[in-house]
Task: inverse folding
């Protein structure tokens, strides 16, 4: 049930029968169809003696759907009796590399700017998007009501945006601002009368 970006190897073992275990099988359609697994540590079968399969393995490498793929397993005895199906195992694989792109107006002088964030992910979706300024503490960015992502810049600096997908794989993009100026300008006023300083409200 957990997302991963790597192959998943499943080992099935432990079944016993007086006639031995001929094989292990798996199903991905709730038992409608069964597939033999690759046996290991098995003795060679003869006409009268079935294979003594100690365990069997399968490696799952393909990306799955968003819901994953559900597997169940069973053993088959040497006399052909099919064992009870196991509890299900849900495998979720996402091998797509995530990407993130950020864009904003870094050329003009502005009091603030809104960065547009464009994430690209596979079936595991977005686990989180964070931003940190000048290698500071990351801050989580929530999606807008329409599912898009934006972030408002109010200070100069370099901002790192990190996307993490459901499988824990990250992608990073950065943007640097040097023209943000939100300070309120203040004028300094002086007055003179003749060559002397003038005080406001005084007669001259």
Result:
């Amino acid at each position: 049930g957990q997302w991963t970006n790597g192959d998943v190897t499943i080992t099935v073992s432990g079944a016993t029968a007086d006639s031995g275990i001929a094989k292990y099988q798996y199903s991905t359609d709730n038992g409608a169809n069964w597939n033999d697994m690759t046996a290991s540590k098995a003795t060679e079968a003869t006409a009268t003696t079935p294979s003594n399969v100690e365990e069997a393995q399968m490696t799952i490498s393909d990306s799955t759907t968003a819901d994953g793929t559900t597997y169940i397993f069973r053993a088959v005895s040497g006399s052909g009796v099919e064992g009870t199906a196991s509890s299900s195992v849900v495998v979720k694989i996402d091998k797509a590399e995530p990407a993130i792109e950020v864009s904003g107006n870094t050329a003009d002088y502005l009091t603030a700017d809104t960065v547009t964030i464009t994430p690209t992910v596979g079936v595991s979706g977005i686990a989180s998007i964070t931003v940190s300024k000048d290698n500071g503490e990351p801050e989580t960015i929530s999606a807008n009501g329409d599912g898009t992502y934006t972030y408002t810049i109010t200070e100069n600096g370099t901002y790192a945006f990190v996307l993490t997908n459901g499988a824990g794989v990250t992608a990073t993009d950065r943007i640097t601002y040097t023209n943000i100026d939100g300070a309120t300008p203040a004028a300094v006023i002086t007055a003179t009368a003749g060559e002397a300083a003038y005080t406001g409200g005084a007669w001259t």
About this structure: The two ends are 87 Å apart (CA to CA).
